[in-house]
Design brief:
homodimer, about 325 residues, mainly alpha, Cytochrome Bc1 Complex, Chain D, domain 2, 2 domains, two-stranded antiparallel ribbon, 13 helices, 2 strands, about 40% helix, globular, disordered N terminus
Chain lengths: ~325, ~325
């Protein structure tokens, strides 16, 4: 604690910029690797990613023909839908009152879904397509719809040139995942971590220092600033909105630690979307996970830091989707 | 008829290309004006159009926070939703079983909506936002939501620099309309009309010739290839799917003639979306509006021509929407 106070004093005096960045990295906060950004940018024009982008925006992958990945993971809204619990096919609310996690930087998650049941993006992508309260589309029908559209047959062949049968449900997931892997968002915080010491304001640095010193980095770490582990929630004190929804975590009762990148854009918060204010969310995290009562000024500073995690979004040209053919199974919104 | 036969013979012989283009123009088929295309391209970067694009993709303009203009007028799907009757707030189907018309080239419509009740795009845009079965958003609440987002306040000021109170419901409509005015899609047919005689294949020219000679241009004319008038439907013989929905047309029982641009991409067809096959739609039009029984080969040729109306879509970068603030009224999907 003494060390922290000294550090805050040093930061306030503008002396410890490099030390704070170094400390943050030592505590596990990592910038988005430059090579990954370059690779993502390069991949954008590839046949696989272009196809994945089309499928990401493709409402015909849903039974109704109206819901796409982008409906709940809206690239314009921080990669989420902005409602507490996801709404899907026939306006069904998520049966466990689960909040849609952001797709941005989801590539950094070691597991996908709140209960971590999926090991990677390509597996994850095939879940909501089939889930009854989401896109409600049987896998065979999804393939049949896409297969019935001649342009898609060509595009799959180009995206998976080695495969004789390129248009499969697994490859739909692979293509969507390849697009999602390009959705990474470097922020001012990344610039700061890699040496641009004035990329964060004094208030943001104060927040970063608190974020590190209070112990948030125990769970929110890595290039995703989260997403790297499963954790008990609540851990120390009860979560006051625990009765909203019936989510019980994974087999061990653990919940995935979400990324904090773009958190400013992804209210409401927590797995059940119970909390709309980022300040309140930070305060609750202090209580439930760290057993501390954060002061208002501390919360303000930490929120300032969290807002510095809002990143630059990749350019996404809205795709033109190929028309259905005579043999395309019709959408079924009923 | 004799003239037509001669013309067909001439087209088949590859002799009458210029004459056919001239005839088409004489019968009222017009290319998209070059100046309009240039203006649309130029306008894309303007503060007004950029704001309009954001609002077009803005689901927070709906009560639920989940439905945007783009939900039913999907820029990836020919500017439509691909279902028979529009689905809106809480999964309500359009109460009159009306099909969502395309937003592409809607600027060429002399009136908006199937019953032509709206005089222009800026007026039209404010309708579905408020309509109960569509976005279900009271105008005041729409303004309150947008007003609560600081970035939007700035963007409205920049888009409407002359106005003291820039953020109004009318200006929301104006901005959306300004974006929609840029959604025009030049096609091979335009290239043909303005002198590129090989821009259409022989089969497409045969279809164009039939389109002109059979009388389709009586209603489907102008740069929108439709959209310029209200017409009785059915006119001569009954429409076999007339019992689907209860649409009765305008005060005079007339229905808006839709644009045929991008018609390949906008199934299902007619005001009630009853017909999924473009071939069948053409055949029905022949019967109901012209009282003629088109032969299969004629229908095929006309459909080939209609597919040459599929145009190049403008580049639309998916917008990043500004985050809600503490005072933003919450979405209400319930």
């Amino acid at each position: 604690m003494k060390y922290v106070l000294i550090l805050i004093a040093m930061v306030s005096a503008g002396l410890a910029q490099d030390e704070l960045a170094t400390l943050a990295q030592q505590r596990g906060l990592k910038p988005i690797p430059k090579e990954m950004l370059a690779a993502a940018k390069k991949a954008q024009a590839s046949p696989l990613v272009q196809l994945g982008k089309m499928l990401y925006f493709e409402p015909r992958l849903s039974r109704s023909g109206l819901i796409s990945c982008n409906t709940c993971h809206n690239l314009g809204l921080g990669g989420t839908d902005g409602v507490a619990a996801a709404i899907g096919h026939k306006w069904a609310a998520n049966p466990h009152h689960l909040n849609s996690p952001t797709v941005y930087n989801a590539v950094f998650n070691s597991k996908q879904f709140w209960d971590g049941r999926s090991p990677n993006l390509e597996d994850q992508a095939t879940g909501p397509i089939q889930a009854g309260p989401e896109m409600a589309m049987p896998a065979e029908l999804a393939v049949e719809r896409i297969q019935s559209i001649p342009e898609y047959r060509d595009l799959f062949q180009k995206a998976f040139p080695e495969e004789k049968e390129a248009l499969t449900f697994l490859n739909i997931g692979k293509a969507i995942a390849a697009f999602e892997e390009t959705l990474i968002t470097p922020s001012d915080f990344d610039a700061y971590l890699i040496g641009k010491s004035d990329a964060l304001s004094e208030q943001e640095k104060k927040g970063l220092d608190l974020f590190v010193s209070k112990g948030c980095t125990t769970c929110h770490n890595g290039p995703g600033i989260g997403g790297s582990m499963m954790m008990k929630f609540p851990l120390i004190k009860p979560y006051k909105f625990a009765d909203l929804g019936d989510f019980k975590g994974d087999a061990n009762g653990l919940t995935k630690v979400p990324t904090l990148r773009n958190i400013e854009e992804t209210a409401p918060y927590f797995h059940n979307g119970a909390v709309w204010s980022l300040n309140e969310a930070v305060k609750i995290m202090g209580e439930t996970q760290l057993g501390i009562d954060l002061q208002e000024a501390e919360v303000e500073a930490m929120v300032s830091f969290l807002k510095a995690l809002t990143g630059e979004k990749p350019d996404v040209r809205y795709p033109t989707l190929p028309p259905s053919s005579k043999s395309t199974p019709r959408p079924d919104p009923s």
